[in-house]
Amino acid sequence: DDQYATGGESVVNWGTDGVDNDGDGHIDNPAEQGIYVITYLISTANGQADASYSVSVMATDGAGNSASSSISLTLDNTTPSGSISINNDATYTNSRTVTLTLSATNATQMQFSNDASSWSDWEDYSTTKSWTLSSGDGTKTVYVKFKDTAGNISEAFSDDIILDSTPPTASITSPSADTSVRGQVVIRGTASGYYFKEYKVEYGQGTEPSSWTEITSSASEVTDDTLATWDTTVLSDGSYTLRLTAQDLAGNSAQTKVSLRVNKHPPKATLIDYPSETVSGNIPKVPVTFTWRGSDPDGITPVEKLVYQYKLEGHLDCQDWSDWSSETTKTYMLPSGSYTFKVRAKDEAGSYPEEDDPATAKSSFTVSLPIIIYPNPCYPNQGQIVTIANLPLASEVKIYIYDVGGNLVRTLGENETNIEGESKTATWDCRNENGQAVARGIYIYFIPGATEKKTGKIAIIK
User: Fold this and answer.
1) What is the DSSP string of 155-190?
2) 440: closest CA among 422, 409, 461, 419?
3) Looking at the predicted structure, is the pLDDT value of residue 18 above 90?
4) How are strands ordered across the β-sheet holding 123-124?
5) Which residues does the annotated region (Disordered) include (predicted)?
6) Strand ranges (DSSP E) for 94-237?
7) Which end of the chain is least crowded, N or C, by CB within 10 Å?
8) CATH level 3 topology of 169-262
9) Could you say which of 3.30.470.30, 3.40.50.720, 2.60.40.10, 3.40.50.460 is the CATH number of the domain covering 268-368?
10) If phi over 0 gives left and psi between -120 and 50 gives alpha, with beta otherwise, what is residue 234?
C-alpha cells in the first residue's frame, strides 16, 4: 500500500532485525537468519522532490536463487496552504456565534484559536465550521491551522470581524406621549450608538397601527436634537403613533413609540376680566384679578367639562404652568413690575393649544407703585420689622437710616433684599450696625437713586 513519508526518516544500512530467529544464541548472523532491515532516506536532502516513489529490494542466496519485492510511498514535505473567512467576509456581527468558511490544500485536519495561543483539538477538515468568538464587543480574530496526511502543519491563517452586541439608543423626547399636536410638529430625541447606520421616523394611525408612513430617515446620529418635522396639516384629527427605529452596522436595532393626538382645533380660552395696561396704587402690593371662559370650536366637549391651566410671567413664584383645574378666576397680589398672564383650556380628549397659539389667551400689563415703607410706625416688641417695597429691580439697593441727630444707624444693601416680581423688597430689623436693637424714636431713611431720591421718617415704638 502507498504510504506517506517526510524527510525526517533516519538511514540505517544493512543489518539484522536484532532477533535470534534460529535459536543459536546469536543475533548478528545474517546468513543464518535470512532476515534483513534496510532504511533509505527519500528527502530533499538527497535531492528527492515531493512525489510518489517505489522502493524495490532483491535478495540472492549462495545457490543463485533470488527474490524481489517493492513498496510504494509518497514523499510530502509541503505544509498545507489555506484561508479562512468569518461570516462570508462580513465586517460586523452582533452574535458571538459565527460561521467560518475554510479552504485548504491537502488538509485532513484543522484546529482553531481565538488568541493564537490556546488551540482547540484537531478535528477532521471541513469547509465550514460554527465557532464562538471571545466575549466582549470589539474587533475579534479567529485563527486556523491545517494538517495533512504526512503530519505537516500549516502556519496560522486568520480573519477579523467586529463584534457589536450593544443596540443603539432610540428615544423621542418631544412631543410627549398623550399630548395634542397640530401644524408642523418638530420631533426631538436621540438616535445614536457605536457603528451607527441609520434612523427612521414613521407615523401610523391609532395606538396600534397596522401600517406605517415614513416621515424621514437619516444616516447621521442625533443626540437630544431635532429628528424630523412632521406635517400634520394633511391629516385628519384623531389618534396617531410616532415610531423611531435606530440601526447599527452590526444589525442591532432599537425602537420607541409615542402615542398622541392630532387636533387642528384645540379648545379656546377667552379673558373676560383682566387689568388695564397699567395698574397703580399707593400700597405695597395691589390685587390683580383675571376671569376667563372656554369654548370648544368643534362643539364636542361641553364648556363645563373643560379644564384650564395658567401662568404669570414676570413673577418668579408663578411663571410655571399651574395644574389643570376647573377654576375660571385667579387673583394675585403683585408688587411693581411688568407681567404677562396666560391661560389655556383642555378638552376631554386631552387636546390643548401650544403656549403661543391664538387659542391661548394672554394679557400683558405693568404694575407701577411708589416705594412704600411699612408698617410705620413699627412695633419691634410685637415681632414687626420695617419693609421697604417696590425698589427698582435694575438698581443696586442702598438705604441709609439715620437718627434725628444725623448719626448713621444702619446701611441696608443687597443682603437685606429679596426680589418680588420685577421689583426688590428690603427689610430692616430695627437694629444698628452692631446688631443692637435701636431705641424708640424717629429715624430718617434716605434712598438715593439714579433718577429720583426718596427720604422720609420711620417711627419705632416700644
Assistant:
1) PPEEEEEEE-----EEEEEESPTT-EE-SEEEEEEE
2) 461
3) no
4) 92-93, 157-163, 138-147, 109-113, 123-124
5) 1-20
6) 97-104, 109-113, 123-124, 128-132, 138-147, 157-163, 169-174, 180-181, 184-192, 196-205, 213-218, 222-231
7) N
8) Immunoglobulin-like (2.60.40)
9) 2.60.40.10
10) alpha
Tell me how far apart the alpha carbons of residues 418 and 389 are, in angstroms, rounded to a whole number.
10
The amino acid sitting at 331 is: T
Q: Looking at residue 304, what DSSP letter applies?
A: G
Torsion of CA 262, 265, 267, 270, to 10 degrees: 140
* C-alpha span between 363 and 416 (Å, rounded): 33
Cα separation of 120 and 143, whole Å?
10
CATH of region 372-460, choose from 3.90.660, 2.60.40, 2.60.220, 1.10.3470: 2.60.40
Mean pLDDT of 362-368: 94
451 pLDDT more than 90: no
CB count, 10 Å around CB of 160? 10
58-59-65-68 Cα dihedral, nearest 10 degrees: -30
- The answer on pLDDT for 24 being more than 90 is no
Determine the Cα–Cα distance for residues 187 and 209; give it in Å rounded to an integer.
19
Query: In terms of C-beta density within 10 A (0-12 exposed, 13-18 middle, 19 or more buried), how is residue 433 classed?
Result: exposed
Q: What is the 8-class DSSP label of residue 206?
A: S
- Asked if pLDDT for residue 395 goes beyond 50, the answer is yes
Q: Are 205 and 240 in contact (CB under 8 A)?
A: yes
pTM score, two decimals? Answer: 0.53
Q: What is the pLDDT of residue 36?
A: 54
Encode pLDDT of 106-125 as tens digits: 999 999 999 999 999 999 99
Q: What is the CA radius of gyration of the chain?
A: 48
Task: Indicate the domain borders of the chain.
Answer: 3-75, 82-163, 169-262, 268-368, 372-460
Which band of pLDDT confidence, cut at 50, 70 and 90, is reported for residue 383? very high
The tens digit of pLDDT for each residue in 156-209 reads 999 999 999 999 999 999 999 988 888 899 999 999 999 999 999 999 999 999
Element (H, E) at 31: helix 30-33
pLDDT at 183: 86
pLDDT given for residue 420 in this prediction: 81
CATH superfamily assigned to domain 82-163: Immunoglobulins (2.60.40.10)
Chain centroid, CA 225 distance in Å: 12
CA nearest neighbour of 176 among 233, 259, 254:
259
Query: Could you tell me if 178 and 199 are in contact, meaning their C-beta atoms sit under 8 angstroms apart?
Result: no
